[in-house]
């Protein structure tokens, strides 16, 4: 706890989700001498039992710790920046990662706003990452959490230098077992909660979630499933219901396993092929947010993570002529590179930056 002690009492705003990670973050900071305020962000306009329970649990945590508690309704911003993006990307044949966009656009921005209003010096969350100012890079940087099973640096790759300058992450050098042990010591009931789902606003299957929206039901059209040579194999129910690398639920029969290789928005076709056809040696990445670097002026090597559950693959990063995009050339071909997902560039455990995969 001494690592997060402060020479004088400073105010800090902690995002409370209702789970054990953010609850433990709050208790660690409170016990280290910070003046802690808990903040819960209300994401959806329509009541959702799962998210309502999160708010109730977050309030109970704040009461248990004896800290002020604020609920901030960010449903309008969430709908504009995250939910509509989530729907739009699927309808366009891309596979989005809404959590990565929600962090900089909604969660951290909102926490910074509350901190400013409350006169707080810092913000904190329960992410398993390490954040500091690095004199070598001369930038605020993100490093992987020391527990590889819990590291969440991938999800924070789009954070700005402004956000990182105010960000405290007490769990970066802890394991989940450490966190649970501390939570039990301080009587936090959140330790008994099940692990949170990957997309907080989607309960169950994302396809069923999409069906709730009129825009999706209106625009989704069935189309052809073909192999990479154009042979018709069957019909699909709508591009939004398929992702690159998918094998199950295609509704077609073949003498060997087939996987989704490509989704073609213009022709409304799902292209399938053998496992070997899902591999690519390169990809282009756009809309890049640099963290440890100010930009990429010349070719450099990095580890590239193309989805959350993916071991970074060694590659060359080649800047485009306009300096805005990057061509990634892998040392070894990678399976199921998915447009719409986020690629994160690493130098060892340091996040160099990240951007949107445009195409393999």
Helix fraction bin: 25-40%
| CA-based gyration radius | 22 Å
The backbone outline, from C-alpha atoms, is: globular
The total tally of domains equals 3
| Cα distance spanning the termini | 45 Å
The tally of helices reads: 8
Q: Looking at this structure, what is the CATH superfamily of the largest domain?
A: HUPs
Mean pLDDT equals: 94
Strand content is: 25-35%
Q: Count the strands?
A: 17
List the strand order in the largest sheet: 12-15-14-13-16-17
SSE order, one letter for each helix or strand: EHEHEHHEEEHEHHHEEEEEEEEEE
> CATH architecture of the largest domain, please?
3-Layer(aba) Sandwich
CATH topology of the largest domain: Rossmann fold
Helix- and strand-based class?
Answer: alpha/beta
CATH class of the largest domain: Alpha Beta
Main beta-sheet strand count, sense and barrel state? 6 strands, antiparallel, barrel
| Poorly predicted parts | none
Note down, in words, how this protein is organized.
There is one protein chain. By secondary structure, the protein is of the alpha/beta class. It is globular.
What is the element layout, followed by pairings?
Elements lengths: L10 E5 L4 H12 L3 E8 L6 H17 L3 E5 L1 H17 L6 H21 L3 E3 L4 E6 L4 E6 L16 H5 L1 E2 L7 H10 L20 H5 L3 H6 L3 E5 L4 E5 L22 E6 L4 E5 L5 E12 L9 E6 L7 E7 L6 E10 L6 E6 L2 E10 L1
Parallel strand pairs: 1-2, 1-4, 2-3, 4-7, 8-11
Antiparallel strand pairs: 5-6, 8-9, 10-11, 12-15, 12-17, 13-14, 13-16, 14-15, 16-17
Helix pairs in contact: 1-2, 1-6, 3-4
List keywords for this structure.
30% strand, 17 strands, Elongation Factor Tu (Ef-tu), domain 3, 5-stranded parallel beta sheet, 360 residues, SH3 type barrels, alpha/beta, 6-stranded antiparallel beta barrel
């Amino acid at each position: 706890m001494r690592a997060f002690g402060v020479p004088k009492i400073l105010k800090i705003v902690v995002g409370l989700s209702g789970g054990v990670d953010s609850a433990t973050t709050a208790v660690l900071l409170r016990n280290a001498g910070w003046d802690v305020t808990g903040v819960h962000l209300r994401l959806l306009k329509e009541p959702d039992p799962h998210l309502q329970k999160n708010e109730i649990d977050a309030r109970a945590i704040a009461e248990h710790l004896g800290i002020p508690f604020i609920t901030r309704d960010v449903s309008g911003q969430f709908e504009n920046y995250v939910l509509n993006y989530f729907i739009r990307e699927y309808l366009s044949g891309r596979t989005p990662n809404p959590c990565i966009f929600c962090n900089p656009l909604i969660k951290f921005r909102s926490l910074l706003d509350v901190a400013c209003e409350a006169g707080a010096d810092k913000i904190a969350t329960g992410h398993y990452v390490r954040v500091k100012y690095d004199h070598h890079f001369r930038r605020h940087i993100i490093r992987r959490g020391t527990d590889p099973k819990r590291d969440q640096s991938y999800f924070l790759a789009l954070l700005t230098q402004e956000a990182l300058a105010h960000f405290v992450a007490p769990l970066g050098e802890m394991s989940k077992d450490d966190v649970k042990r501390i939570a039990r010591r301080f009587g936090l009931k959140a330790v008994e909660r099940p692990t949170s789902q990957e997309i907080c606003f989607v309960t169950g299957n994302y396809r069923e979630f999409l069906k709730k929206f009129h825009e999706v039901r209106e625009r989704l059209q069935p189309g052809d499933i073909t192999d990479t040579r154009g042979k018709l194999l069957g019909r699909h129910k709508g591009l939004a219901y398929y992702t690159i690398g998918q094998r199950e639920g295609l509704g077609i029969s073949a003498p060997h396993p087939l996987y989704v290789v490509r989704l073609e928005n213009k022709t409304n076709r799902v292209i399938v092929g053998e496992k070997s056809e899902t591999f690519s040696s390169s990809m282009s990445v756009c809309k890049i947010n640099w963290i440890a670097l100010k930009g990429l002026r010349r070719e450099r090597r990095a580890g590239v993570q193309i989805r959350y559950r993916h071991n970074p693959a060694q590659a060359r990063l080649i800047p485009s002529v306009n300096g805005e995009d990057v061509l990634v050339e892998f040392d070894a071909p990678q399976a199921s590179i998915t447009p719409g997902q986020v690629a994160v560039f690493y130098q060892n455990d340091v996040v160099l930056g990240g951007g949107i995969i445009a195409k393999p």
